[in-house]
Amino acid sequence: MALLLLPEPYDFAVSTERYRAFGPDLANLWHEGGLHRAIGGREVRIETAPGGVDVSPLDAEIEPVVLHYLGGPFDLGAFSAFAETDPPLARLVHRLRGLRPPLNPTPFETLVTSITAQQVSLQSAFAVRNRLIERFGERAEHAWAFPTEERIARASEDELAALGFSRRKAEYVVGLARAGIDWVELATLPDDEVKARLVAIRGLGEWTADWFLARHLGRPRAWPAGDLGLWRALAEHYLEGIRPTIPETRAFGARFAPFENLSAHYLLASLYTVA
DNA sequence: TACCAGGTAAAAA
DNA sequence: TTTTTACATGGT
């Protein structure tokens, strides 16, 4: 076990609430007060510690992955200063003090997770996703490694449909696994080009592409204007209960530039994090 | 029971 | 070109 420092303030429990709020997540598993995840086939446990987190095991392979996983790239200091100029956002930053949004470590997992969450409630999305993980993933100790692209490429649409995927979503997921995307090259492209590449793939719309920028690549300007949860949060904190349309939400994002991604995360977290 | 839930593609108009 | 529909599960 070794200490991994994160810039203060950092609140591990608040930051990881989204892995618990909608039911258990087998790939990001909360167990005995710590977060467990398979990294390179090994189970890694992360728990809160003064000044950061305790990580076990921790070595040169795991450290950069965990740092990214815990949202290390986000510039929270600059964001907090920016938020002070916007009263509703300032309230959220104070209420959710120490929230550093986690980032999803792997691109294929990020996109498949988004596909499972398209249109349905997050509770049901987690249920279907957990069945996919148990069927095609590898269990480490407690947590499971998410199914690999190679394994899903060999699966059939019927097998996915049997797990609760719609016919359409089963096609999306298997097709994505078989597409042979160059993830390393994709990550080098600017936001607009990443979106254009992703949206060209069947089953990946603008909402899914925006969340990929936000939750995998951690791009500061990502703003998922098609997200129902974001509409609800904007309605609650800015629009007197009226849910905005997609164009209205997209336009509203300018208010948070250049911190759209962190703003979206704080807005969404306000919906499910208890004070 | 019917309806809503962190969308998307394809059919119909 | 724009609008409408099908989709599968889980909670209420």
Reconstruct the topology from this structure:
Elements (H helix, E strand, L loop, with lengths): L1 E4 L6 H4 L13 E3 L2 E6 L2 E8 L2 E5 L5 H8 L6 H8 L3 H9 L11 H11 L4 H15 L1 E2 L4 E2 L3 H5 L3 H5 L5 H12 L4 H4 L4 H9 L6 H10 L12 H10 L8 H7 L7 H13 L3
Antiparallel strand pairs: 1-5, 2-3, 3-4, 4-5, 6-7
The protein binds a DNA duplex (13 and 12 nucleotides) through helix 5, helix 6, helix 9, helix 12 and helix 13.
- What's the β-strand tally? 7
What class would the helix/strand composition place it in?
alpha+beta
Low-confidence stretches: none
Write down the CATH class of the domain at 107-215: Mainly Alpha
Profile the largest sheet.
5 strands, antiparallel
Tertiary shape: globular
CATH-defined topology of the domain at 107-215:
Endonuclease III, domain 1
Please report the distance between the alpha carbons of the first and last residues.
30 Å
- If you average the pLDDT, what whole number results? 97
Output the radius of gyration.
18 Å
Instruction: Count the DSSP helices.
Output: 15
- CATH architecture descriptor name of the domain at 107-215: Orthogonal Bundle
Order of helices and strands: EHEEEEHHHHHEEHHHHHHHHH
